[in-house]
Design a protein that fits this description.
This protein has about 270 residues and is mainly alpha-helical. The chain contains 9 helices and no strands.
Length: about 270
């Protein structure tokens, strides 16, 4: 399993980091494709749990939200949300009239999926398009959340004793959470030092603070996705990535991290 995970990481991580470094439309389109796969997984999870969902509406909503974040601003996005809610609501009304007693729950779960993937994912576009050096900020954010996950896993598996969420995810320990957070802090300081010339606005202090934030952010994202999977009696969101599960299994922390990274950039830089 460990070897399989390592091979999958070597296959997917370098190209993704390279696209993040390049930034621009290339990264945005790559992210859009990844989010569509994630949305498909989410919809399939709901269907496996006995809920009727519209794959077309969910995928269309996610694509629309990401494209609007790429090319539009202001009042357009709230209008899009109004249309999305109206379409999903109409679909649920039709489903209820045709015998689906869980149509209301299905509506809420579909809205959750669109928000979770489309809205949180589109923060990657926002950060990538931020000036100056938005793509570098995004690269730092992604690198930090991966390092935090790795630190939490290594320290938690070696020293973990106190369970944080024993019912939801018994393997998650307080030691792993603290270890991941400290890994983020140290990594953030080091990255800030390495990128002093190309990204002077990050620096050691901001890098350390951003890394510190990634610890609880990554834990929350992973725990929330675990809650969704457990509620649907699933172990993984899919099987697309050997040794890792599905796309959403790899994105659960990153989606929230991109949102935190974007607002960190806005608050502490602009």
């Amino acid at each position: 399993m460990l070897r399989q995970r390592a091979l999958s990481a070597l296959m997917f991580v370098p190209p993704f980091l390279a696209l993040t470094w390049l930034g621009g439309i290339a990264f945005n389109l790559c992210l859009l494709v990844v989010l569509v796969f994630a949305g498909f997984e989410f919809a399939r999870m709901l269907k496996s749990g006995g809920y009727r969902v519209s794959f077309l509406l969910m995928m269309g909503a996610i694509v629309a939200l990401v494209l609007l974040r790429m090319f539009a601003s202001g009042w357009v996005e709230p209008m899009a949300w109004t249309i999305i809610l109206a379409l999903l609501g109409s679909y649920s009304l039709w489903q209820y009239e045709h015998g689906d007693d869980k149509a209301f729950i299905s509506l809420g779960l579909q809205v959750l999926g669109v928000f979770y993937i489309g809205v949180l994912g589109s923060y990657g576009v926002s950060l990538n398009q931020s000036q100056p050096n938005g793509n570098l900020w995004l690269l730092v954010t992604i690198a930090l959340v991966w390092l935090v996950d790795a630190g939490a896993y290594l320290i938690g598996s070696r020293f973990g004793k106190r369970k944080v969420t024993p019912k939801l995810s018994p393997k998650k320990s307080l030691e792993g959470l603290i270890g991941g957070t400290l890994t983020g802090l140290i990594s953030g300081v080091l990255i800030g030092w390495v990128l002093l010339k190309p990204l002077p606005e990050l620096g050691l202090l901001n890098g350390g603070v951003l890394g510190l934030l990634m610890g609880p952010t990554a834990f929350f994202g992973d725990a929330l996705m675990s809650l969704i999977k457990r509620s649907l009696a699933l172990k993984d969101t899919g099987s697309l990535i050997p040794g890792h599960g599905g796309v959403l299994d790899r994105l659960d922390s990153m989606l929230w991290a991109m949102a935190v990274g974007y607002y960190f950039f806005i608050i502490f830089y602009l």
